[in-house]
Amino acid sequence: MTLGPAQRAKALREQIVAHDYRYYVLDDPSVTDAEYDALMVELRQLEAAHPELISPDSPTQRVGGAPSPEFRPVSHRVGMLSLDNAFADEDVIAFDRRAHERLASDGVAAPVDLLYSAEPKLDGLAISLYYENGRLINAATRGDGTTGEDVTANIRTLRCVPLQLRSAEQTRVQVPRELEVRGEVFMPTEGFMRLNERAAAAGEKVFANPRNAAAGSLRQLDPRVTAARPLQAFFYAVGHWQGVAAPDSHHELLRWLAELGLRTCPESRMVRGVEGCLAYYRDLGARRAQLPYQIDGVVYKVDARSLQEQLGQVARAPRWAIAHKFPADEAITLLREVEFQVGRTGTLTPVARLEPVVVGGVTVSNATLHNMDEIERKDVRIGDTVIVRRAGDVIPEIVRVVLDRRPQHARRVHLPESCPVCGHAVVRVAGEAAARCSGGYSCSAQRKEALRHFVSRRALDVEGLGDKLIEQLVDAELVRSPADFWALSVAQLSELPRMGEKSAANVVTALHERRQTTLPRLLHALGIPGVGESTAAALAAHFGSLQRLMEADQAALQAVSDIGPVIAASLRAYFDDAGHRNELKRLRDPAGAALEWPEHEGRKPTAEGPLTGLTIVITGSFTGITREEATEALQKLGAKVAGSVSGKTSLLIAGEEAGSKLAKAQALGVRVVGEQELKTLLSGQPI
Ligand code: IVH
User: Fold this and answer.
1) Which of 109, 160, 178, 462 lies in the 20 to 30 Å Cα band around 443?
2) Is 652 in the pocket of ligand 1 (CB under 6 A)?
C-alpha cells in the first residue's frame, strides 16, 4: 500500500521525532546521520511539493518562527518556584530534620531515611514550556515567577526541545492534554568559550559567564541569532498538567518526561537520607570541572509525590526541596598590575596580575581582561579591589571593580606604546579593535605564537610539535622562522631537556611527512592578519599560485570576492616585507626546507561532479567536520567553495556561531542550510 503525501509526511515526522528522541534524550541513536538526513530531505521535498502539508510543528520549521517585535508577557499557569539555599552540610541536615518533624506532626508515616532525588543545580536560566495535545504552544522565561516573557520563536530553534511530544504509539506513557514543563536552558562551557573568543577577537562585548551568554542568546529579537548559539536544555519539573495521572515520584517524573521526548539531566540519582545527599554532593563537586556545563550546586528533592504534597511550600519555595550550593567561585582581591601578552599576529591582550586568592578551591593570580574596550567598560584601574570569578574550567575573569575601595593612587591602564616583549612600536590599525606589536618575527612572543600556528592542525598539521617544545626551540634559538623547522636535525632536538632520541626522531619524521602541502594550507599557515582558512582558500582558488598572488596589486586583490580594502592592504604589507619574501623563498628552496605545494587550479572547480556549477560558502563551526575538510570534500564533488557571500552564492552552509556571512546570506535571500544538509550533500544526495 502506498501512502498519500499527508500520511507519508506524518509518518516521516514521527520517525524524525523518534530519532531525535534517541539522539537527544537517550543519547543512543539507532540510525546514521545520513539515514536521518534522508528522512529530513524527503520531508522537505514533500512539503515543498505540498505546502499545505507544512505544519508548525514539523521538524523542518524550527527557525521559521517570525521574529517577535518584543517579548510579550506570558502568565504561567502555575507559579514558578525558587529554591531555598543550603551552604553547609548542617543546613542540609536541618532541612532533612524539618521535613521529618513536619511529617511527624502531620501524622504521616515516613521512613527513617527519606528517599531523595538528587541532581545538579544547572547554572542557566529557567524556562517553562507549554504543550497542548503534545504540541509546543509557547515558551516563557521565569520572569517574576508569575509572568514571564514569551521566547517561543527562540526556544523552537533548540534542537533538543521537541516541537511535538512523542505520540501515544511511540511511548508507553500517555501524552497529556496539557503540560506545562519546566527546565533550564544553558550554554555548554566549550561553546561559551568559543563564543567569547570570537567576540573578543572582533573587539565585541564578551559575556561574563555561560549563564549570561545563555540569557543573552535567548533574549535575541531574531531567532536566527539564537539558532546559531550553542544552547541546550534539561527538564526537571512540571507546573501544570491535565489528562494524565501524575507520576508518583520525582524519579518517575523524570523518566516520564524523557519518555515524552523531553531531555533530562543524566546526572540525577536516587539517594537515601542526608548521608546519601552529602555523598552525592561531594562526588559531583569533585567531578564538577569535568562536566560539559556549569553547575553551581546540587538540588535535593523529596522523591515521593505524596510527601511533597504533604510538605507543601512556604512563600515561593517548596519545603520538599533545597539547593545545596558549592562554595562561591567568586573572591575579592587586589589588582596589582596589568600586563600585556603578545599573540600570534602581535595582538596585545591585557592580563590582570592579582594578589593571589583562592577561588572555587584554586589559587588564582591572573585573570584575562580581553581587550582595551573591556577595561574601559568595566573601568578597571591598577590598585583597584576587584571581584574575581572562576567557573569550572573557564579562565578566571574580573567581574567588576569595588568602587568604594578605589584608592587615590589607582592608575588607569594605558596601552603601551612599544611591545613589552621586543620593544617594537604598537600600532592600532584603523577599523580594527585590536592593538598590535609591529615587530613580526623579530618579536619572540609573536614568533612563538606564529610558529605554533604554522604547524597547527588546520595549517601544516605537524604532529608532536607542542607549545613547550616550540618555546624551547625559540629560546634555544634553534628556530626563528618556519623554514628553520625543516632544518632541524635529530641530534639538535635530542639535546633539548626532556627530549629523547626517539621523540626527536618522531618530530623530524612528522615534519618531513608534511613537506607536501597545499597552497590554501600554506597561506593559512603564514598567519597574515585577516587571512583565515576561508580567505586562504579563496585566494588560492583565485590566483592559483603563490607567485601570482604575490604580484597582485591592491586592486587585483580586491577583485577576489572575499576581500575588501583592509585585507588587501594587509596582504600587500605582508608580501612587500623583505623578511617575509625571504622566508617564503627559504620555504620553497629545494636545498633547504623545501616545502612543496602544487599550483592551485584557477577559478575552475577542481573536479566535475554532482555539485558542478554550485558556488557554496561555508561559515561557522561544525561538530563532525572541519571547514577545511568540508571545503575539500565539496570541491571534490565539483562545487566552487567561495570565501564570501555575494549575489552569485548558490548556498550558504552555516554551522554553529555563524555570524556576518549568515546575516548577509539572509539579506541577499541566499539559501542557508546546516550541518545535516552538509552531510547529506557529502553523501552524494540532493538536499
Ligand atoms: S527545581 C520546585 N531543579 O534554580 C522546583 N531548579 O532557585 C523549583 N535550577 O529558578 C526548581 N537546576 O532556574 C530545580 N535541577 C534543578 C535546577 C533548578 C537549576 C534553578 C531554576 C530555578 C532556581 C531556583
Assistant:
1) 462
2) no
Q: Tell me the CA–centroid distance for residue 47 and ligand 1, in Å.
A: 39
Ligand 1: centre distance to CA 122 (Å): 8
pLDDT for 67 equals: 52
Nearest Cα residue to atom 21 of ligand 1: 126
> pLDDT by residue (tens digit) across 31-70?
887 788 889 889 989 998 998 988 888 888 887 655 555 7
In tens, the pLDDT along 606-617 reads 567 888 888 899
Among 121, 378, 448, 640, the active-site one is 121
What pLDDT shows up at residue 603? 42
Name the β-bridge partners of 269.
Answer: 118
90 residue type, one letter? E
Which domains, ranges and CATH numbers included, belong to the chain?
5-61 (1.10.287.610), 93-325 (3.30.470.30), 329-412 (2.40.50.140), 440-513 (1.10.150.20), 519-587 (1.10.150.20), 615-682 (3.40.50.10190)
Of the candidates 294, 328, 142, 292, the residue with the CA atom closest to the CA atom of residue 211: 294
Distances 139 to 17, 72, 158, 390 between C-alpha atoms, Å: 19, 11, 12, 31
Residue 355: pLDDT band with limits 50, 70, 90: very high
pLDDT tens for residues 299-332? 999 999 999 999 999 878 999 999 999 877 788 9
With the most atoms of ligand 1 within 8 angstroms of its CB, the residue from 234, 236, 311, 324 to mutate is 236
Task: Identify the band that residue 116 occupies on the pLDDT scale cut at 50, 70 and 90.
Answer: very high
Q: How far is CA 411 from the centre of its chain?
A: 36
Nearest Cα neighbor of 72 from 179, 178, 219 is 219
- Whether the Cβ atoms of residue 23 and residue 166 lie closer than 8 Å to each other: no
pLDDT band with cut points at 50, 70 and 90 for residue 433:
low
- Mutation probe of ligand 1 site: the residue of 80, 122, 187, 301 with most atoms within 8 A of C-beta: 122
3-class secondary-structure state, position 471: helix
Q: Quick check: helix, strand or coil at residue 338?
A: strand
In sequence order, the 6+-apart residues with CB closer than 8 A to the CB of 344 are 446, 449, 450, 452, 453, 527
Specify the range with the lowest mean pLDDT, choosing from 241-250, 295-304, 433-442, 564-573. 433-442
Tell me whether residue 664 is one of the annotated catalytic residues. Answer: no
Determine if ligand 1 sits within 6 Å of the CB of residue 321.
Answer: yes
Q: CA-CA distance, 390 to 642, in Å (whole number)?
A: 40
* pLDDT score at 235: 98
Ligand 1 contact via 323 beta carbon (within 6 Å): yes
How far does CA 105 lie from the centroid of its chain? 51
Please give the pLDDT value at position 607. Answer: 66
Pick the atom of ligand 1 nearest to 318's CA.
Answer: 2
Which ligand 1 atom is nearest residue 317's CA?
2
